[in-house]
Amino acid sequence: MTDHTEGLPLGQAAKYLGVHPKTLQRWEREGKLPCGRTVTGRRTFTRDELDRFMGCAVKTGAERTVAYLRSPNEQRSAELFRAQRRAIEQYILPAGIANVEYLEEVGSSLDSQRRMFNGLLRDVLRGDLREIIVGHQYLLLFFGYPLFESICRIKGTKLTSLCQEGLLPEKEMIRDFKTITAGFAARI
């Protein structure tokens, strides 16, 4: 723990990450996210620490190429990450793309609070990425992929979806469709 007299206070840091302040406090207590303390004992966070936590402070500038890998659950994550990595390597090696940074995240494509994805979005908005590569657009977003694609285009980030149907976790897709259908049916 270091002294961060110029860091972001808890509320601003939580807003920066798009989470509730209690979530940020929990992450700090669990040792997932370092924080400093003011002389009065209040938590402070630097933007660099928050960015690193979000998975977006490895390199700076538009030279970064990121491969985003997602698994719906921990049980099959190693297997799914391996399959996605193989598909992406089959794309990048012949294309001569080097120094690809792999981001692996476990979570639902319906979850808008995925921290790696939100860090990726933040990097796109800052203009820090040259390219994002995904095995299939559904692995990035269930809804909103065209919007994300437009944001990338406006910010100068190439978004490459390999459209590999074999990478899609079918059980998750069925569960997501059921969740969406139940949500709509409840409103009728």
Please give a structural write-up.
The protein starts with 7 loop residues before the first strand and ends with a helix. The model is unreliable at 1-5 (pLDDT under 50). α1 (10-17) packs across α2 (21-29). It has helices at 10-17, 21-29, 47-53, 77-95, 115-126, 137-140, 145-155, 170-186, and strands at residues 8-9, 36-37, 43-45, 64-71, 100-106, 129-134, 158-161. It contains eight helices and seven strands; from the N terminus they run βααββαβαβαβααβα. It has 188 residues and is α/β, with parallel strands linked by helices. The strands form two sheets. A four-stranded parallel sheet has the order 5-4-6-7, sandwiched between helices. A three-stranded antiparallel sheet has the order 1-3-2. It folds into two domains: 8-53, Multidrug-efflux Transporter Regulator, Chain: A, Domain 2; 64-182, 3-Layer(aba) Sandwich (Rossmann fold). 46% of the residues lie in helices and 17% in strands.
